[in-house]
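2 proteins. here.
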Amino acid sequence: MSKLARKPIKIPPKVAVKSESNVLKIQGPKGTLEKAIPQGIDVVISSDSVKVTRKNDEKTVRMLHGMYTSLIINMLQGVTEGFKKELELVGVGYKADIKDKSLVFNIGFTKPVIMLLPSDINAKIEEKQTKLILTGIDKDKVGLYAAKIRAIKPPDAYKGKGIKFIGEVLKLKPGKSAAGSTGGAAAGGGK
């Protein structure tokens, strides 16, 4: 049994949890989230806690048991606190802007890159248009949208220029300057 799924999950104050026809609905101060519960998994709701149980010990059901426990924990956190991802644009002249419910990135391409902002994700730009903060109540959607933004121009391997997560550690490669001092004589080809 999953260590996470052994304990009941406490329901925070001002949060309502309902289960109707295998759909779990959690409503809180920041919004409402829904998740379909697969067969083999039961969600038992009491006045102050939620417990995830399984109907049998099949391998697939055992795998889903811990996963759905963590998904419900994330849903409860999302409707009370929300989730945040921070990205940084590294490079000379790189900047982001918000125009008409879309993000506009000027990151060294000939034309700006425009991405539509989903309705359930909020964006804020700080620090001279180089820091982007995404917030929302659904952890999966916020993380996926942040990954799509990073995929526009991932940090390069030599100088780290591009879009990266704040706190992301990059292992930069050494440049060719070290090889230039010894390779110059061989490349000249003496007579």
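next one coming up
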Amino acid sequence: MAPLIIFMTVVAPIWLILHYRSKRQVSQGLSESEYIQLTELSELADKMVDRIQTLESILDAESPEWRKRVED
């Protein structure tokens, strides 16, 4: 019973305050710098996907069994 009382009087109010504070920040949207950073990260991720696909195609051509060795 005591852990429940402690949870309801200490943890739950803090949890609710932090939860709704984060919801409010999300609803405000991204700032300009955050949007620019997100765009840059998206472009980097696209480049990384291209590089990974290129590397996998090279490995497929040079060593067709490489996927089986990686999965084991």
